[in-house]
Amino acid sequence: MDIAAIGIDLGKTTFHLIALDAAGHVTLRRKFTKPKLVALTATLRPTLIGMEACGGAHHLGRLLRAQGHDARLIPAQFVKPFVKSQKNDFLDAEAIAEAVQRPSMRFVPIKTEEQLDMQTLHRARDRLVARSSQYGSGGTREQTGSDSLDNFAAWPPIRSRVQPYRGRLRARGG
Length: 174
Description:
Elements: E1 5-10, E2 15-20, E3 26-32, H1 34-43, E4 48-52, H2 55-66, E5 70-74, H3 76-79, H4 89-100, H5 113-134, H6 141-144, H7 148-153, H8 159-162, H9 166-171
Parallel strand pairs: 1-4, 4-5
Antiparallel strand pairs: 1-2, 2-3
C-alpha cells in the first residue's frame, strides 16, 4: 500500500482516517477507535499525517511523532476550502489529507503537555481577572493582601500544578 498522506478527522470516540496515494486517490478509508488507530499507525512506514488543530490533536500528534510520522495540525478554517461536498467525517478526513500536502499550508505547532498546562493556567487566570474586574475594583494587592492568582492557586485540584509557574504568571501581569 503506497500512502503519500493521511488525513484524520478527530471525534470524541471515533477517528475517521483517509489515506491518499501520490496521485491523490483514496487507498484507505476506515473508522477507528483511538487504540486501534494508534496500533494501525504503528505498523505504517513514516508518513505525512494531518489533523485539524484542537485540544486532543496535540496529544495524538505527539503519539504519532513518537512513532516516526510527520504529524501536522491544520487550523480548521484552512481545511474548509478543501471539503468537496456535503460535510461528513470521511469527507473532512479527505480534505485534511489534501490540505496537509500543500506546500504553502500554515500549520499549528504541536504543543507539549507543559505548554498546554501553561496555556490552561493563563486562560483560567485571565477569566478570573476579567470576572473580578467586571464587578469593579476590590482594591490593589497592597490594600487587600491577596490577588486573583492567590485565589486561583487556592483551588485544590490545581494547587500543585500552579506552583512551578507562579513566577511566570506574575511576570505576565498578575
